[in-house]
Amino acid sequence: MSPIVITLAILIIMIAGFISGKFPLGMCGMFAALALMVTGVLTPAETFAGFANTNVVIMFSMMVVAGGLMRTHLIENIMKLINRIGGGTETSIVVGFGLVMILMSQFMNAFVALACLLPFVTGMCEDMKVSPTRVVFPLCIIGNVWVVLLPIGLGASAFAQQNAFLEAFGAEPVFGVWTLALTRLVPAILTTLYSIFILPKYCPAAPSLPIQSGVGKKAGTGTLSKGKETCAYIITILTVLMMMTSTLHGIQPVVCASVGAFLTVLLGILNHKEAIASVGWDVLFMFAGIMSLASALTNTGASDVVANAIQTLLGGTTNPWIINIAFSVVICIMTQFLSNNAMINVFTPLALMITTKLGMNPVGIMGLMWIAGCASFITPMATPGIPLSMQAAGYNFKDIVKMGVIPSLVALVSGIIWCTLMFPAY
Hints:
The chain is mainly α. Helix content is about 70%, strand content about 0%.
């Protein structure tokens, strides 16, 4: 069996594993890498090269820095401020808690952030005589569109993930610290404004189903001393600033991130066990595995086969509008029923094969992968935050569809226009 056939077969199996949702993403990625090594398509050195990639090191380091910041009183203090200044209207509640959701979703999954906030949200709604049906779903959407968007916390390593993909396909790493954030920023702002000022009017005035009490979980409180908390803030700010200005001072982002992680442990903000626990190992194994597969696709010529097949399906077009629309619409539809992380990870390599073959600037379409994947608000299967919202506010399936279609379209359409115009393919 030829290396091309073997590589394509492994690609199909990995994609099936992602879509099934029955296996951890890291297991799917490492299956691909190990299968390529066992079949002789890659050498052991090529198979595990992804773990030594500087972008993977940045991801690891920034997860540790973010873990240290999450041990501070930052979220707790903001929550107290929201409780003090809440104006008693549904708009003020959505604005206040929306800002907290934006911040929290830079350090954790949007579902976890929503689960932490729900006890406070429902409590304030009860105190202010505001129906939670007008508030909970808008907050769910805000968390989804802003998740790991800003280059702080986990988002500080997002650019490294994109560069790792590019390098694996033999392309130049073109993402800076802010690049991916800029592709997503305008759609996120527009969707947030819709969620604050328009969406509550289309939310049901009263629960359609009985509200389940006790939904959500207690938000964590800071555990650091004042001195260590100050150090955590300084490390996070300086690490991000140094990474953002690396072209000015010449210190590579991987050095800045690694030093930040080292200082987080050295100064006792996290001990070594907590630092290890703060790392998303599933994500790291997934990316290392995908990078091995990407190398095999490039080295064997299988990427050209896939790119030619996709281009044939698109009618042989090289028009970036058609390519961007096709990829983003398919992802947006599929992510209403399947894992958005899985869809982003499945389609990003496919899109890169097209951009590499056609010599396109990959920034716009890679940003659209995230925008389309996060525009998942229409079904309870789209994201775990939707069924959580249904329980907390008493929405039924019809409510979710009615409320979710327009914000999904706002995010998707604005994303296509923004990324295609502002990040031209040629």
